[in-house]
Amino acid sequence: MRIREVSITGYRSLRAIRFPVGGLTVFVGANGVGKTNLYRGLQLLQATATGTLAREIASEGGMDSIVWAGKRKVNTPVRIKLHVSLASDTDRKGQSRLDIDEADKIAYSYAIEVGLPAPGAVALGLEPQVKQETLIYHGDRRPIVILERDRRYASAIDDDGKKHTLGAELLATETALSSIRDSGRFGDIDVVRRILMDWRFYHDFRSDKDSPLRQPCLAVTTPTLASDGSDLAAVFATLISVRGHATELEQSVDDAFPGAQLKSTVSRMASFGLNQPDFHPSRVFEANELSDGTLRYLALAGALLGLRLPAFIALNEPEASLHPDLLEPLARLIVRAAERTQVWVVTHSERLAAAFESVSGVAPRTVIKRKGETWIEGLRLGGDFAEDEDEDDDE
Question: Are the CB atoms for 186 and 148 separated by under 8 Å?
Answer without folding.
Answer: no
